[in-house]
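Supplementary notes for students who missed Thursday's class. We covered one full example, reproduced here. Read the sequence, then the structure, then the short commentary at the end.
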Amino acid sequence: MLRALIFDVDGTLADTESVHLAAFNHAFEQVGMGWHWDLLRYTQLLDISGGKERMLHHWRSLQPDLKELAGGSVEATINRLHEIKTAYYENAVNSGAVTLRPGVLALMNEARAQGLQLAIATTTSPVNIAALMRLAIGFDWRSHFLAIGDASNAPIKKPHPQVYMKVLADLGLRAADCVAFEDSSNGLRAARAAGLNTVITPNSFTAHHDFKGALRVVPDLSSVNVARLKEWHGR
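Structure (token representation):
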């Protein structure tokens, strides 16, 4: 029986990656790193889950012998970059630069009306989630979700299933009672490792990913409703 829908955020709820890319490049300029990620490089880096992890991976690709210095200067630099990047992203979202993908809000509203629970399972930070959902749903957005797993409470990034295992525990439901929504191969691997049927909505950054094992791959959620999900899930 389908009892809950679990949503990834970046790329799934909204096409956020272009804004994230601009935010990263803004942070690099502000700190004087001399880095600039183009679309190709950022698309490659999306194979690494988590903004801090992505930056550290890039740094090590440029400087293979990179080691933490006394006082934790590498970690401090990454943290500072992430703070600047997050502030830029939040301001961009608040200014309307990001909107939910087609069908997302309609499916959420229909699911809630039919008594299904909603949850979020993402590797992004709580402030990024709040910025997006506050604009899309309103200041009471948190009351729409029974459980939220994010970078603050599930620090092991996808494709590890930690965030999904946490969300399932918080929901008090079996994986067999839920459907997950993802946009990337890492997200799919994490959800499937937790035993979840997963609907994929690719975007321009993830269209080339391998989605073998997905319940369905659809362009967006505009043609997906609860009845169709129950039909797919029941098979």
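Commentary. DSSP finds nine helices and six strands in the chain. Residues 17-94 form a domain with the DNA polymerase; domain 1 fold (CATH 1.10.150.240). If anything here is unclear, bring it to office hours.
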